[in-house]
Each structure stands twice: as C-alpha cells, then as structure tokens.
C-alpha cells in the first residue's frame, strides 16, 4: 500500500538544544539550590535571632554583675553609716577631734568611700558645736578635714540632708558630681535622733552621710569585650548618664534629651522601658561613634539603674555572614559534586531512551525497522518491549484498516448506487406533463442519509385523472428504502386495479402486513384528481394532513378523514374524503421531516410556521412554493444537523391561458 511522504521523512530531525540529560541535571540542581537557599536563609535568620537573644542574656549578665558590685559596696556603706549614726545618738560627749578621728578611721578602712559628713539639725549641738557640720573627704591619696559650719544652711537644702530627714528613713541620693571635683558620687544618708525618756521628747539630731565614688562603674563597663566599636554605659533611674565613653554626657544629659536633640522620637518608648526596669533590644545609631548598632538593655534592681550595651550591627552580622558564607561555599561545592553525579546518572538513564527515540523515528518510516533490545526488567526494558508490541499492533491495525476502508468504500459505492436507483424511481422531471396546461406540479425529496424512507409519486390513471401520493416509511437507511420501493410498486399496481382510493389502501395494507417480521410501517396520503372538474378523492393512512391553499392565501387543513398507518395490523378499513381544487388553488403535501425539523436548541419548526409560509406563498408557481418552504425550514434549522427526510409535493390547477 503506497502512502505520501511526510515532512518527517523529508527533513532530518532538529538537533536537541537541551536534551533529557540536561533537563534532569537542571531539575536536580534547581531543586537542590532552592532547598539549599531555604536552609541558608533559615540558618541566617535563626543565627540572627540567637545572637539577639545572646545579646539580651549578655546585657542581663552584665547588669547582674554591676548590681552585685553595687549591692556589695552599698551594703558596706550602709553598715558604716548606720554605725556612725548610732554612735552620734548614744555618745553625746564625743569631741570634734574624736569625731574627725572616727570618720578618718572609717575612710581609711574602706577605699570605696569618697567622704563622710555629719551635719546637725537646726539648733542642735554635735561634737560641742551648735549647728555643727563636719566633713572628711578623700583627696587624691590624702584625707582632708572640712569644717562646714558656715555652709551648713546650704547643706541642709541638699538631697543628702532633706531626703532622710523628711522621709524619716535612710536614703540613697541620685548620683551627682562632687563639689569641686570631677568624680561622680552617690550618697547614703541616715538620720539620727536625740532625746527620749528623761531627756525630753525624741527629736531629730542630724544626718550622717557617706559618699561613694562611681568611677569604678566606668572601669567595669570598659572591661566588657564588646568588639572593636561596641561599648556599654549606665543610666540612672531617671535616665541620667552615670557612665558613658563620652564624658561630656555624664551627669550632664539624660537619654531623653539626647533622643530629643537627635530627633529619635520613636525610641522614647524604649527609653521609658529602660527606666521602668524592663529588658529588651532595639536598633539605635550609637552616640559615641555614630554606628548603626543593636542597643540591649537590662535593669540593676537594687538601684533602679539600667545597663545598656551598644553592639555594632556590622560586627554582629559579620559573624552570621561568615557562617553563611562558609555554608554557601560548602553548599556550592556540594552542588558541583551533585551536578557531576546527576550528569552520569542521567546519561545512564537517557542513553536507552535516546536509542528508543531513534528507533521510533525509524518506525515512522518503516514498521519493519529493528528495535533495540534491553536486558533486565526495569522500566526502560518494559518500554522497549512495549515499542515492539506497539509495532506489531500497528501493522495489524493497518492491515485491518486497509480491509475496513475497502469494505467501507464498497458499501459507500453501493449506497450511492442505491440512492441513484431510489431517486430514479420517483418523478424528478419538472414540469412532468408539459402538454397539460391545466396542472402545475413540483416536488423535492432530501434524505437525511444517503438513502431514505420518504417518497412521493404521481401518474395518470387515464387521460383525465392523475393519482398522487406522498409517504413516509418508518426508520431510515436501506431497510426503509426497500420498504419504500415495495410500497410504491404495490401502490401503482393497486391504483390501476381499484377505482376506490380507500379500497386500494386497504389492499396495500394487507400486502405490506404479510410477512412483515421487521414490524415496519408506512404513513401515506393518496388521492386522485380529475383535471377537468378539479374534484379530488383521497384517503389518509396516518400521514400529516395536507394544506389546501387558495390563491388569496386562505388555508384549509385536510385532517379528515384519517386512518391508521399501513403494515401494522390486518383487516383495516379506510374512509375517503373529497374536495375541489379550484383554479389557482394549491395542494401542499409534506412529510414530518418538515414540521419536525429542529434548530440547535432542539425546538421544532412546527405546523404554525409551515402554515404561515404556505399562506404567504399561495398563488405562485409550484417550484417557487416549494423553494419558499424549504428556505424557511433551512433558515430555522441553521447549522443543526438534518434529523429526518424532508419531502414536499405541491399540485396547482391553473388556467390554460396562464400556462
């Protein structure tokens, strides 16, 4: 069997630009790269979070360390101060020299103390001096006595005196610069009382105040290892800088004033958290070096201070970047090794597939081309076996297709011949009686398939009478066509033997009913018209009632009498009807393929549309009449497939002069 040359045979296959090996390798690498990127990103953000947590823990530890040192110093100072206060209460005979000696002994035993002051309450006498005020200060390596009687009034308005005397309890003051020095001091003051019992009512005798230097705080913060550009500082409970690398800020500014000058209003809430004793972390541009940093803070519970650590982001993140870089280098090396492994694996998988692809191309040109053989029982081997099975099945199917095609062509040829024979059995020459000017006849038959079951017929019974009929056999195709041929032959024979149309249909029913094992039937309308008078006698065996149209468009439906269909039951009788076909009138006969024609939505053309067209086209010649009806049906159906045979027959009486 010959076949045309395909474009695949005429042209070689294009070279693959990106074969299965490359695709497999690319898919593996892309998938692995996505996973690696996700892991690196997760590691980066996890490490960043861990470092932030580490910073918080670090500043909390620093705050705890500072708190412990402060508390140890404060405890010692509180004990010494309270002891001196008790001494002033119980020993009213102490002299000035004894008092100075006592204060100098305390300062000598504790280097953390910067000074001691004993100030009398107004009008009270201590160490033999009314309104006395005695002070010993540490100056460089020496202890200096200060007689402060003249300035006792100004001392009494300071926090060191007012806080304990007003509140009645020992108090720590806010840090401050010592008078005439650059030291940051903090003072613990204890009130002492005189009198009571036989000495009269208990009254305020004065205040004992011990000063401690906070210079050690700077040394503690400087010892912190916070990287190249990191540093720490401490603020008091109202936000004042107690310790800071920028000395100009110490005891001169608060963290709120610095934020105000820099316009960092968003960080005011963070500063408020600091003085409220909270722990946290925030982003901040460091004051000391103007570097974008993490600012971690934690409280010193014993004093209400806050410890703040400034850690440059670039130094913190550089550790994470180094970890990510090392992980990326390791991952990149792994990707290279994975690419090599994927390449060799993919090439091993793709090699047999490429062989099968080449064989498939060869099979497209020659089904007897050899196929590669594969060992084993894996998917590639199964695919090779399937190719062989496909080739054998294709050869078998092609043989069957050739045989089926030959049979189909023979059947189609026979159907075309049968259709030609069927068409030859019905009148198709118009006008059929050119020598008879009294009558105009035109008909059309359009089968839904190659051959159908409808038919129409008309023929002379004698020189004056014409017999006409239209019929519709049940079913379609060859069986309906054979039944139609038998019906037509019997009808022509019986109409020439019988004078009665009804009697002819009765005999036709008997002949069709005999040995009708297929249970087929036929509807038929048959009549005889006298061309001289126009009188017409008819009988109807279950067919659609014809339309009698006058030349002015008036319609009459010939729906009575009507009998049962032919070929179903024996012993059926039929009744005849009569009408007169006047000059100019038309008789329109049709099958149900006209009224039951459907559009694409399944709607029917129907009797009303047919009657409208029949009325509008009345009075014209029969060919035009049939064309108008057929055009109306076609316009209604549109693109919908024809579902039944369409048959029309129109008979019209005309004047001889009109012909």
CATH topology of the largest domain: Beta-Lactamase
Rounded to the nearest angstrom, the radius of gyration is 62 Å
State the CATH architecture of the largest domain. 2-Layer Sandwich
The averaged pLDDT comes out at 84
Q: Given the structure, what is the number of helices?
A: 15
Number of strands: 24
CATH level 1 class label of the largest domain:
Alpha Beta
**Which secondary-structure class do the elements indicate?**
alpha+beta
Q: Oligomer, anyone?
A: single chain
* Uncertain stretches: 1-12
Proportion of residues in extended strands = 15-25%
Q: State the separation between the terminal residues, measured CA to CA.
A: 60 Å
Shape verdict = elongated
Count the domains: 2
Largest sheet: 7 strands, antiparallel
Helix content: 40-55%
Q: What is the CATH H-level superfamily of the largest domain?
A: PAS domain
Tell me what the structure shows.
- The structure is a single chain.
- By secondary structure, this protein is an alpha+beta fold.
- The protein folds into two domains: 18-354, 2-Layer Sandwich (Beta-Lactamase); 426-653, Phosphatase 2c, domain 1.
- It has 15 helices and 24 strands.
- The strands form five sheets. Strands 1, 4, 5, 6, 7, 8 and 9 form a seven-stranded antiparallel sheet that branches. The chain has a five-stranded antiparallel sheet with strand order 11-10-14-13-12.
- A hairpin with a 5-residue loop joins strand 10 (231-235) and strand 11.
- The protein is elongated and about 175 Å long.
- The two termini are 60 Å apart.
């Amino acid at each position: 069997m010959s076949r045309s040359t395909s474009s695949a045979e005429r042209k070689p296959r294009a070279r693959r630009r990106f074969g299965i090996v490359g695709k497999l390798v690319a898919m593996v690498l892309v998938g692995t790269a996505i996973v690696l990127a996700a892991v690196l990103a997760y590691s980066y953000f996890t490490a960043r979070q861990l470092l932030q947590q580490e910073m918080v823990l670090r500043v909390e530890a620093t705050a705890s360390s500072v708190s412990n040192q402060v508390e140890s110093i404060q405890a010692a100072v509180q004990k010494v101060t309270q002891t001196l206060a008790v001494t002033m209460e119980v020993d009213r005979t102490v002299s000035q020299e004894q008092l100075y000696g006592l204060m100098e002994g305390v300062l000598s035993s504790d280097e953390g103390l910067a000074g001691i002051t004993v100030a009398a309450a107004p009008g009270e006498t201590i160490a033999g001096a009314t309104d006395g005020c005695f002070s010993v200060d540490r100056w460089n390596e020496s202890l200096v006595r200060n007689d402060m009687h003249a300035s006792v009034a100004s001392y009494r308005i300071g926090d060191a005196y007012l806080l304990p005397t007003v509140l009645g309890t020992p108090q720590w003051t806010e840090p401050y610069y010592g008078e005439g020095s650059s030291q940051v001091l903090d003072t613990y003051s204890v009130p002492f009382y005189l009198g009571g019992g036989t000495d009269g009512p208990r009254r305020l005798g004065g205040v004992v105040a011990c000063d401690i230097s906070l210079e050690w705080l700077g040394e503690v913060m400087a010892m912190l290892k916070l990287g190249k550009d990191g540093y720490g500082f401490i603020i008091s409970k109202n936000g004042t800088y107690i310790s800071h690398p920028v000395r100009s800020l110490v005891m001169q500014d608060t963290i709120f004033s610095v934020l105000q000058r820099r316009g960092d209003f968003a960080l005011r809430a963070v500063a408020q958290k600091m003085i409220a004793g909270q722990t946290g972390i925030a982003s901040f541009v460091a004051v000391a070096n103007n570097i974008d940093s993490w600012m971690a803070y934690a409280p010193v519970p014993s004093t209400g201070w806050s410890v703040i650590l400034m850690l440059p982001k670039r130094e913190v993140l550089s550790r994470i970047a180094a970890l990510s870089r090392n992980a990326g280098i390791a991952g990149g090396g792994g990707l290279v090794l994975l690419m090599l492994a994927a390449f060799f694996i993919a090439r091993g998988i793709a090699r047999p597939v490429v062989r099968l692809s080449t064989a498939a191309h060869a099979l497209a040109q020659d089904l007897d081309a050899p196929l590669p053989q594969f060992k084993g029982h894996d998917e590639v081997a199964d695919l090779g076996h399937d190719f062989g099975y496909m080739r054998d099945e294709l050869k078998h199917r092609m043989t069957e297709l050739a045989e089926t095609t030959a049979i189909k062509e023979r059947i189609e040829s026979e159907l075309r011949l049968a259709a030609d024979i069927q068409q030859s059995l019905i009148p198709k020459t118009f006008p059929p009686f050119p020598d008879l000017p009294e009558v105009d006849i035109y008909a059309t038959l359009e089968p839904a398939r190659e051959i159908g079951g409808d038919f129409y017929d008309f023929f002379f019974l004698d020189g004056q009478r014409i017999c006409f009929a239209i019929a519709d056999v049940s079913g379609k195709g060859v069986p309906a066509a054979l039944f139609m041929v038998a019906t037509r032959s019997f009808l022509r024979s019986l109409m020439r033997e019988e004078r009665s149309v009804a009697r002819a249909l009765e005999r036709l029913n008997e002949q069709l009913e005999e040995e009708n094992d297929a249970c087929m039937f036929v509807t038929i309308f048959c009549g005889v018209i006298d061309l001289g008078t126009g009188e017409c006698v008819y009988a109807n065996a279950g067919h659609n009632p014809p339309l009698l149209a006058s030349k002015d468009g008036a319609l009459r439906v010939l729906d009575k009498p009507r009998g049962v269909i032919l070929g179903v039951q024996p012993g059926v009788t039929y009744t005849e009807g009569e009408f007169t076909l006047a000059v100019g009138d038309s008789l329109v006969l049709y099958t149900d393929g006209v009224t039951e024609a459907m559009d694409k939505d399944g709607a029917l053309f129907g009797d009303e549309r047919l009657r409208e067209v029949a009325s509008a086209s009345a009075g014209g010649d029969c060919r035009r009449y049939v064309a108008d009806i057929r055009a109306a049906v076609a316009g209604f159906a549109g693109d919908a497939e024809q579902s039944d045979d369409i048959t029309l027959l129109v008979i019209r009486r005309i004047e001889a002069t009109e012909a």
